[in-house]
Amino acid sequence: MPRARSRRLQWVAALVCLFSALVGVTSAAAASTPSPSSPASGTSTGAAAGGASKKPPTVTFGIGPANTKALDGRPSFSYASAPGAEISDHFAIVNISTQTLDLIVYGVDAVSSATGGLGYAARSAAKKAAGGWLAMPEHNGSDVFAVRGGSTLVLPFQLRIPANASPGDHTAGIAVGLLADVQGKNTKNLTFEQRVVAKVYVRVSGTPVAKLEVQHLHASYSGSLNPIGSGSVTVSYVVHNAGNVDLGAHLKLSVSGLFGGAGSVPKLADIPDLLPGASAKFSIKVPDVLPTFMLSGTVKVTPTALAGSVDPKLASASASTHFWAVPWALLVLIVVLAALAYGLRRYSRHRQATRPAPTHRRGRDGGTASVNPSEA
After folding, report:
1. Which side of the chain, N or C, has fewer Cβ within a 10 Å radius?
2. pTM for the model
């Protein structure tokens, strides 16, 4: 085999090996789906650092709307009224335990969690919203009530709506808690609270406005080391309740490229209850997205009315963004292969240019013959 042809085959084999090695490098992209969590109506606050040597008692108690004698079956307290009104109602504390419990009773503001779930402020938090509208009962000047084991205690309360209350929804809670002192290895006299909260929902008369917005939408692409592999897209956004009524929401995310839909977009969990003025933040990772240079991401929010709420027409909201998804690994591979091909071509031309010219000698029969010096 001529030497020049052998070198060409060696260069081609080197290019094939390089391409195979680059294609064999892969990176795994793990899907991440949003896991929104809503604080439960019954919560516990406080913990013992280093492990508790004295645990709070295990008891069971509850709270619910009531008439003057017993629980009346309402799932929560719900009112529609004008500013300046005062509403009187009752709640019942049920002690399912066998022992007498000293339970503290107080009103709290409702708050939205980071992902749109309904929760309640701590007992020590200042009341800045409807929690301050609740006038709670007292026993001998105290907010602690002794409830015998296996019994139900019905208590009255008042909801006093300020004259300057804004139209729309206002949410608070009536909390019943059990306080216990616990001790840890590194902490002394730590107070542990077990509590349950009953929702108090108030619709103040006026013009209701149901409006959700998608804000701060951002998307970015993370590629793979595999030149022909896919990467992942991370989409972050904020859903803001710009209206004055409580709303839930269905969320839908789409990622598209030059060839339509892209990636394995996860199904998003609903927002259960977003209070007026509150925001919920999300960050979603979409795997298996091919880098087609330019991609777009769209978030659509469809509001839903809460159970028992009568709202105006609910309009969907959406937002879109465009972002780059450059296949850098593939481009680098193309550049490397082009450079090697160019180098191989230059080398072949150089070999041709530096090869000695064939010499001519006269044959015995008087003719001439070309003789390559390498074959002489």
Report:
1. N
2. 0.73
